[in-house]
Amino acid sequence: MKKLSFILVLTMLFSLCAVSVSAAPAVDGRKTITAYAADVKIDGVIDSCWLDAETAHVDIVKENASAWFGDTSKVAGTDYATLDVKVLWDGDSSLYLLYMVTDQLISTVGENPWDRDSIELFVQYDNTDDDPAATRSQIRWFSDSEVESGPAELIDYAYGAYAGGFVVEIEFDVSAVSDGNYLGIDFQYNDDAEGKGVRNVCLGWSDAVDAASSDSTVYGQCELSSTKIEEVTAAREAAEKAAAEAAAAEAAADNVPAADDAPATTPVTADAGILALCAMMGAAAVVCVKNRKH
């Protein structure tokens, strides 16, 4: 009975969050992330709208780009950096991205751009996994907030540094996305973990072999959903409230203390990691926030 109640709550949550633009040309088998509609201020500060945004865990150590590839003694978050990326969009033509990097040693001494600590964004305008030359854009931001070179589609960005890492908020024009509501996408982090000017680890989300700069078939895909982020948040909060009330009622009926008998009510879409990062940013002095607009 308790399991059934919790399943019904989760079903309610997902049914509320599943509404999206119909007839979208998704590519079967592609790793997928959904961008809900939201108003986002690009200022390098993590606002509440990001809490329930979907997260891409960029944790694949790329085979042909990582000096430490295959070394199982190296641990993410201890020996090298971690990257999570959240996505939203404005419901029209702008894609919003929040890159959240944890990196204890920031290095920009590498001679080659990819040997400096940096994030990368890859966008494919025609969502296809069978055309390596499909129209795409690549852009790299260094960990000192400088952008290497920005395509015209880069509308705005903001950088915020904190103790133990940095964040970059990005607004990117996706009005060129054709034939539907999906676009190809991938994310990357280049980490000179030893500070010696050599990329020890290259992290990817979908691409595992360091082909993203020349072959867009290795990308994942992003769904541009009509669901508003406020709806997602409201559904999560309603599900949490219903689960807590159901647990309390069942506990009372069974004469069992609610604290001992309640099912887990951890938010389904809310990200505990972003809460921790917000706390870190609040506790640490932000070094700089830098914007660029076209």
Provide a descriptive summary of the structure in words.
With 294 residues, the protein is of the alpha+beta class. 20% of the residues lie in helices and 30% in strands. The chain has four helices and 13 strands. Strands 1, 2, 3, 4, 5, 6, 7, 8, 9, 10, 11, 12 and 13 form a 13-stranded mixed β-sheet that branches. Strand 8 (154-162) and strand 9 form a beta hairpin. Helix 1 (2-17) packs antiparallel against helix 2. Residues 1-24 have low confidence and may be disordered.
Describe what is shown at a glance.
The chain is of the alpha+beta class. It has one domain: Immunoglobulin-like (Sandwich), CATH 2.60.40.1190.
* Basic shape: globular
The percentage helix is: 10-25%
CATH class: Mainly Beta
How many distinct folded domains? 1
The tally of beta strands, per DSSP, is 13
Q: Mean of residue pLDDT? A: 85
Fill in the CATH topology.
Immunoglobulin-like
- Biggest sheet, in brief? 13 strands, mixed
Low-confidence stretches: 1-24
CATH architecture name: Sandwich
Q: Which percent band covers the strand fraction?
A: 25-35%
Order of helices and strands: HEEEEEEEEEEEEHHHE
Separation, N- and C-terminal Cα atoms: 57 Å
Structural class: alpha+beta
CA radius of gyration is 20 Å
Separate helix tally: 4
